[in-house]
pyruvate carboxylase (Diacronema lutheri), 1261 residues
Amino acid sequence: MGATGVGVLAVLLGAALGAPRASALAAVGRLPVARAPPRAMAAAPRGARAPTTAARVAAARRRAAPRMVAVETPPGGITPSDPSKPPFDTVLVANRGEIAIRICRAVHELGGRAIAIYSREDAYAKHRRTADAAYLLNPEGSGLSPVGSYLDIPRIVAAAKEMGAQAIHPGYGFLSENAKFAQACADNGLVFIGPTPQTIQEFGSKTDARKMAIEAGLPVIPGSAALADVGEAVAFAEEVGFPLMVKATMGGGGKGMRIVRDMAQLKAGVPAAISEALAAFGDGTVFLERYIERPRHVEVQVLGDGTGDVVHLYERDCSVQRRHQKVVEIAPALGLSDELRHALYADAVKIAKATKYRAAGTVEFLVDQKGRHYFIEVNPRIQVEHTITEEVTGIDLVQAQIRIAAGATLRDLGISQERIMLRGVAIQCRITTEDPCDNFRPDTGTITMYRSSAGPGIRLDGVGYTGLTISPHYDSLLTKVTARADSWGAAVSRMRRALQEFTIDGVQTNIPFLLAMMTDELFISGNVDTSYIEQRGPSLLERAKLGGPAETSGTAIKASDQTDLIAKYLAHVAVNGQPKSLGAHPGVRASVRAVPPPKLPDMLRAESAPAGWRQVLLREGPAGFARAVRAHKGLLLTDTTWRDAHQSLLATRMRTCDILKAAPATDVALRNAFSLEMWGGATYDVSMRFLREDPWDRLRALRAAAPSVPFQMLLRGANAVGYTSYPDNVVKKFCKLAVKDGIDVFRIFDSLNYLENMKLGIDAVGEAGGVIEATLCYTGDLCDPTKRKYSLEYYLNYARELVALGVHMLAVKDMAGLLKPAAAQMLVSALRAEFPDLPIHVHTHDTAGTGVASMLAAAHAGADVVDCAIDGLSGMTSQPSMGALIGATAGTALDTGISLRHTEGLNEYWEQVRQMYAPFESGQLSGSADVYLNEIPGGQYTNLLFQTRQLGLAGRWSQVKRAYTQANLLLGDVIKVTPSSKVVGDLANFMVANNLRPDELVERAADLDFPDSVLQYLRGEIGTPPGGFPEPLRTRALKGARSIVGRPGASLPPFDFDAAAKYLAARFNTAVISEEDVVSHALYPTVFDDFLNHQLKYGNVSLIPTSAFLHSLELGEAVQFIDNAGKESEVKMLGVTPPLANGICSVLLEINGEPRIVSVRDSKLAPKSGTKGEKADPIDDGSVGSPLSGVVVALKVDKGDTVEKGQPIAVMSAMKMETTVTAPITGVVERLAVSAGASIEVGDLIVYIKGGADFIASKQN
């Protein structure tokens, strides 16, 4: 990292930790030191900040320019028309943000000094650094609020005098339309750069302006005088009718405005508008005006010199508005007739001349659908959108204001109506820190990356920079983007390009919404009015959520955002590590950080390999495929490496990226294999819950990388890939999508061998077009004549029932490795004799070490296919060694058609990959014959061990294994495979944790709180076990609860997929909801919702290497990954600061060579209940959180109050916009978590409501 990068990082860190910006800059040696001008030093008042280093240097450079004059030059001696002399030596800018910067630049270009004012909350604001010196308005103890600071007339006037200013420019907003401020300037010998106090008074009041317009002969909209109270509003409404517009008499920007369509809205809207206007302008006076439906909002820019000479600078169309706040402005307006344009110009100039208007101003009109125009107001100030007029006329309005204030006339400035010409078309977009996908909620936080646009025809006026903290106290405007071109179409294209070039991270912005607008046909047509956003909003939001064409994923995250979200995830892991629920051994770190893809031997290449069995399936269909398998000479293999092998050894924690890296080589080396078992079972749940991956993405990616070998999945019958029963249409929809996305063979089983559950799975796979491999789950011991429950005849009878359902294949699933070689020979021989035409597939686990022998015995007895795993992930609780089976059968009638040399590269790859997953190893170093006693399935072994550890029973693992045997017998000696195996495991842990013997458990069953899974089993929710349920345990444990008879899911109503899709789209603010997403939600609603939340917060973490996913990056370590757009990105760890008092750590990263700071809360220091920063629970409807970051203006309820759903409970203010928070449920206020006046963040708890109508009724009774 170069010196520049280190310097920038030091500056950012200084801001993050609250260090003064100037000190931070000086500390890294980035700026030269210059002596401050004498006046600036002498004038620095008590409570003021000295000029920043940057300001001193800038000022020194300006004074070195030949055209500058001495600082001491008095205003009276200036010749305004002389461009070599500044109109004013020093101008105080009585504003903040981008307009303050704009004014400073104009003052500097005219040769003067600019003085900024600022609040403590604006300590690092950009306008401070742009000015030559800055004055602090609200030092500690002043009692001034963040907004009130900029409204304090005496303090601002005093600052101007103390800083040696001769003039004050008010900008827009704040005091710009306050006649008392203009008069105070005049009374103190200061020039107010704007209209006279009288003009401001006349035009500042919209009601007075209406009178003047009427006197001047301008058409106006019917309206009221200023309202004294709500009663006067009601009286006017009764006389005029609805709809009406409530408008603040002062100010602009949409503040204090409400459309009301009935009396109820009027009575609520007037007080709300008064409150908002008072907060924004210091004056809460409002009036009523008849509301015109769907007008265009057109304003004419005027410029006067106070002598009666006034010119217009053409018009701007400001119709694109939201909440009466302008979003996009266009100059000139499109589609107006020449007659209307000239009428607008004439009326604008007429009313300005009537007052001998001085400075820049805007005369605003509404144009109705018939082309009639109505005067609405005059804004006696510079407007936000003045930039587009400057672009299309070439006249610098701010400089003209300053020169006119110094005494110049329009003639002196060379400005006359005939010389003002239009040059092209300009558009302005306002980039704000609002989230369009969350109802335009104002966002706050620190900008971690700010990269803006540039290029021909683009102008930027803004405050954004990397490290800027967005405050909830001020307007959300970040940057104004102006695009100018020769034509409307070219201007739109240029604006679209400019917006696409922006990168702003750390806070949400409205850029996606603006981009959607730039591609909207109606907007491009230019035929828009003030209802445009209201009408097109839904479709624009859809596009905004999509993030633009060809940049979408399942959670609608743009590829350009993925790197930053992933960096946020890496920062989170650096501070908090992985959650304990992931199951990794604490302190165990993998010795291998990365593994290259496996290599194939030279003699084996994709183009020379034979066609795989999948081509047979695609050509012949499932039935023909089964016949071909049965006719095949030799033993076929299924490789379980991609699923059951890592489930059994590594708790199913294998990530997609590591499997995908091996997929192309596997597709060639195992071309003769029957299948790759790679999906379903626990992998579906775990991928979302722990790995934060989409299981459907895994399926599709692997299918694309390995197209030749059939894919096989594990289907839990009526349970699909879940742990409970689902509506039939969910199971069928799941199977249909699985086939579409790449599954070929479905190994269908039921954990209890319950035929009714099997029927649904078989029907679903058959309808979907998959290969039906019906499964007999094996338990017990056929070699032991004393174990009679699961006899040979039991399995044959069950097989007969399955075959009668029309299956393609039979499978024997030995979940625990209990199928001894002799038992394998007995069972497979009997099945082969009875079903000579059906392929037989055998699965086992090598827990006891007899797996290879059992598979060879099964093969000799007539099995067509057996399961195995690549050597590096075989043995113990996994499947038998593939290499052993290949070697043992080579050259015999059972030859697999696969060479050991073909699998060498794969084996070496998986041996290394396994080392990366060392934190998930069970610690088992050898096989364990005690499986014949405890019968723990191999796929459950490691998961049960992790569960035992998390329950604090790690030192009692031997007891748990013994208890597993006891629990199995207590439950009726069940077949143990998910979900029945989970029932047994949960009961075993329960017995050990509570020190219960089997007899004690049965005796005390009525008083015990059993695990949910046990109760679900006893209620019949997963089916009926062979031999029925155990008594008296069942009756006692259920305590009278109803049980299910028959197939559990048979009585469930069909799942509403359309409703679920709408719910997901609304909850996650995305238009990208796939059929697969809806099915995942149907199967695992909580898990899937949590997964989507994680994706939206941290991006697609499956893109990063496993080492970075599992472990925090070390100091100086960098990680590379390919983002969704196919571009390589790099994130480097530079350091982590200690947590601040609020628990926030600053993580210093370098992202693609650019320094970045990510703020992360240390979870160990998270706020406790009842403390500031306590978060609302998003799942609990009674936990009411703040919808935005801001200030609590008022609490409408108190503890113990009864509230109705929809009742206002609090009023929030953010960026001068008030929002009412309503009760989401009916209930009683149990707790207030904040007080009025508190500053809180989005999601912070406001109140807790103990809820529900039943609760209210119980309280009343």
User: Anything to note?
Assistant: The longest strand covers residues 310-322. The radius of gyration is 37 Å. The mean pLDDT is 85. The chain is about 40% helix and 20% strand.
